[in-house]
Amino acid sequence: MDRAALFDVDGTLVDSNHLHVVAWWEAFRQHGHRVATHAVHRAIGLPGAQLIDHVLDRSRDRSDDGRLGTAHDTVYGTFHERLEAFDRAGDLLRTLAGDGWKIVLVTSAKDRELDALRRAIDADDALTATASADDVEEGKPAPDPLEHALSLVGVPADRAVFVGDSVWDMRAARRAHVVCAGLLCGGIPRADLTEAGAVAVYDDPADLLAHLHTSPFGTVRAGTATAGRSSDG
């Protein structure tokens, strides 16, 4: 039976979270909002509209929300050519693809941003599909992006593993009934990822690759998705 390896991209495969923090912080500043960078960081992984809601007072005047998103995209666009994948991110995708997994990127990125992320990973040969938040009504932490990703490759939830770096990733996977592994390279603490639903936590793609056979990928491959290994690194 087919198996699906679903991957978040920002902060999971590509070292981009803190660049997003800077871009959002600058967008908020340009439009008169003073926000702490740590508050922005905790919201990274949400689609733009939800991130703005998470960071700003929901009773605010929303007329500037579109311009906030545009300002973020403009600032972040200046980083595209400098994006770098985490160590062995491409090797992880190719190893799983070589073992018969269907690889799907599950991301809120679109158009030029997604192109830049894929160039950084440099593993298009391993990809089966890409699922964007634009393809669904609700982004993470709703289960919709993961359910859409599974529908693209025709794989049931119990034959899939999702890897992400944020609590939003973990919550989406839990709601989609997909076993999930967390990575610390996005900057979110291990305890937060575990509490949100991660069955195993690793430092980064290289650490996950080094422990692949004892990870959730190994348990799904063997027919059970209820156990995993948390790296002590």
Beta-strand percentage?
Answer: 5-15%
Low-confidence stretches: none
Total strands: 6
State the major sheet: 6 strands, parallel
Pfam family, one: Hydrolase
Protein name: HAD family hydrolase
Keywords: Hydrolase
GO biological process, one term: DNA repair
Describe the structure.
- Strands 3-2-1-4-5-6 form a 6-stranded parallel beta sheet, sandwiched between helices.
- The longest helix is centred in the first third of the chain and has 14 residues, at 17-30.
- The protein folds into 2 domains: 3-15 and 84-222, 3-Layer(aba) Sandwich (Rossmann fold), CATH 3.40.50; 17-78, DNA polymerase, domain 1 (Orthogonal Bundle), CATH 1.10.150.
- By secondary structure, it is of the alpha/beta class.
- Helix 1 (17-30) packs across helix 2, helix 1 packs across helix 4 (65-77) and helix 8 runs parallel beside helix 9 (190-196).
- Helix 8 (167-175) links the parallel strand 4 (160-164) and strand 5 (179-183).
- The chain has helices at residues 17-30, 37-43, 48-55, 65-77, 89-98, 111-121, 144-153, 167-175, 190-196, 205-210, 216-222; strands at 3-7, 101-107, 127-132, 160-164, 179-183, 200-202.
Secondary-structure blueprint:
Blueprint: E1 3-7, H1 17-30, H2 37-43, H3 48-55, H4 65-77, H5 89-98, E2 101-107, H6 111-121, E3 127-132, H7 144-153, E4 160-164, H8 167-175, E5 179-183, H9 190-196, E6 200-202, H10 205-210, H11 216-222
Parallel strand pairs: 1-2, 1-4, 2-3, 4-5, 5-6
Helix pairs in contact: 1-2, 1-4, 8-9
What keywords describe this structure?
single chain, 233 residues, alpha/beta, Rossmann fold, DNA polymerase, domain 1, 11 helices, PGP-like_dom2, HAD family hydrolase, hydrolase
